[in-house]
Amino acid sequence: MVVAELLVRTGQGSHSAFAELHRTCAARIHGLAQRIVRNHSQAQEITQDVFLEFWQKAGTFDPARGSAINWMLTVARRRAIDRARATYASVRRDTVFHHRHYSTAHDSTSEAVLASLEAHRVHVALSGLSAVQREALELAYLEDLTHVEVARLLDLPLGTVKGRIRDGLIRLRAAEGVGR
Amino acid sequence: MTDEHTDDALGGGSWPDHALVGAYALDAVDPQDRAAALFERHLARCPDCQDEVASLREAASTLSAICSATPRAELRLALIEQIGRVRPLPPTDQRSTPARLPGPGHRDRPTARHRRGRRRAGVVLALAAAVLVVAGLGATRPWDDAVLSPSQQVLRAADARSASVDLGRGARATLVHSDDVNRSVIETENMPVPPTGSVYQLWYERDGTLVSAGLMPRGPDHTVRLQGDARGADGAVVTVEPEGGSERPTSEPVAEFDFGLIG
Predict the structure, then answer these.
(1) Which of A13, A42, A49, B79 has its CA 20 to 30 A from that of B73?
(2) At what angle do helices A40-57 and B73-83 cross, to 10 degrees?
(3) Which pLDDT does position B134 carry in this prediction?
C-alpha cells in the first residue's frame, strides 16, 4: 500500500494503518533525525515524538500538496534541526568541525539502506550526482547550512554552489520520478 | 511564466535569481540575503516557480534515504501502545482528494483471469506465515467514546498480539488476536479475489486440528472477526475453499498465523 494511503487511513484512526506506516517509514524518519542530531537517544525521542504527531495530525495531510513521505520527513527534519540547535551552541560550528575533521561526504550510506528495497533506487539517484553536488546537497539538507555557508565551507563561488544545488535536485528529481 | 524568467542569467540587479530555486527548496537561503528576498517576492506570485520548488522539495527527500536507520523494536511497541491513549485531531476538510487514493497500481483489481475462475490460477498467493507479536499493552484508556472497529477493540486488549503477512503483489493480511477478549480479527488489504466458485475460509488451529472460523466476504479489503472461540487457539490459517466453505480444509493454507511461539 502506498504511504499516502497509509497516512490517510491513519488520519481516519486506523491503528493497523499507523502500525504499517511506522513499519514502512520509521527507518527513514529515525535515520534522518539521527544524522541531524548525531545522538542516539535524542534521535529516538524525536522519532517517537514525530510519529505521535503523525498519528494526531495525519488528518491534516493533504495528498494534493505533496507526497506523504515528504510531509513526514519535513516535520522530522524541522524537529531534529531545532533540537540540534538547542543542543549545540552552534550546530554550524559543530558541522564545520565535523566536516573538517572527518570529511565524510559518503560515510552516511548505511548498511540498512543498502539492504532495503529502496537501495537500488536511491543508489541510482545519487550516483547521478557529482561529488560536489552531493556534498552541497547534504550540507544544505542534512546539516541545515545556507547556500552561502556551503559556499564558504567548500570554498566555492556562491554562484557555483547555487547552481550545483539546483542541478543536483533536478537530477534527483529526474532519477526519482517525483510524487511517489 | 512571467517576463522575469527570460532573464535567468542575471543573479543580481532587480531580477529574481532563478538559480536560487534549489537552495530555496532546501530552506538553505539566508533570509538576510538580498537576492534571496528578491527571489522570494517573485516566488509569491509565480506559480511555475512554486511548482518547481515543490517538486525539488520532493526530490530532496531522497537525501534522507542515505541515512536510513531502523529504530529499536520496543520503541515501535511503545508507540502503538501510546496511540491508544492519544486522540487523533479531527481531519481538516481542505482535502481535495477522496480518502481512498486512486494511487497508481497499488490495488490489484480482479482481472479477467481471476474472473474466468481457472482454479488456482487466479490465486497468486504463496503461503505466508507469521508469528504474532504483542501489539497493544495496558488495558485502560482515557477515552472510549469513539466507535471502535473490531480490530481496535482487540488491539486495545492488554494481551493483544498481531502479525502481518505479506502475500505478494501488494496483498497483505493482518491478524490481531486476544485471549482476554476471546476474539481474533483479520484485516486484508489488496487481496486478490478468489476464483469464481471459491472463497477464502478462515480456520482456528487448536491442538493440531483446524476448526472453521467462517468465510471472508469477497473483495480486496475487509476487516472480519473470526467466528468461534478464540481463546486457547494455537494459530489461524486462511485457505481457498469451494463456495459455502468446507468442513475441513481442502487446500493448502495461503496464510498462516502462529499464536503460540511468543512469551
Answers:
(1) A13
(2) 30
(3) 53
Q: What is the pLDDT of residues A96-111, one digit of tens each?
A: 444 444 333 333 444 4
Whether A15 sits inside 8 A of B97 (CB atoms) is: no
Query: Which is more confident, A73 or B145?
Result: A73
What are the residues whose beta carbons fall under 8 Å from the beta carbon of B183, sequence distance 6 or more?
A: B150, B153, B154, B177, B225, B226, B230
B254 with B129, same domain: the answer is yes
Q: In Å, how far is A119's CA from the nearest CA of chain B?
A: 8
Of how many residues is chain B composed? 263
CB A1 within 8 A of CB B106: yes
Distance between CA atoms of residues B156 and B153, nearest Å: 5
> Which residues of chain A have a pLDDT value below 70?
1, 88-120, 177-180
3-state secondary structure of B223: strand
As to burial, measured by CB atoms within 10 angstroms (0-12 exposed, 13-18 middle, 19+ buried), residue A111 is exposed
Is this model's pTM higher than 0.90 or not? no
For the complex shown, is ipTM > 0.90? no
Is the pLDDT reported for residue B1 higher than 90?
no
Domain extent for B211: 76-81+110-258
The CATH number corresponding to A1-87 among 3.20.20.70, 1.10.10.10, 1.10.1740.10, 2.10.50.10 equals 1.10.1740.10
Would you say residue B192 has pLDDT above 60? Answer: yes
Rounded Cα gap, residues B201 and B217, in angstroms: 9
**Size of chain A, expressed as the number of residues it contains:** 180
Contact A69 B33 (CB under 8 A): no
Q: Report the DSSP pairing between strands B128-131 and B255-258.
A: parallel
pLDDT for res B91: 59
User: How many domains does chain B contain in total?
Assistant: 2
Please list every residue in chain B whose beta carbon sits closer than 8 Å to the beta carbon of residue A125: 62
Longest dimension (CA), chain B: 83
Interchain contact, A178 vs B76, CB within 8 Å: no
CA distance B17 to B151: 54
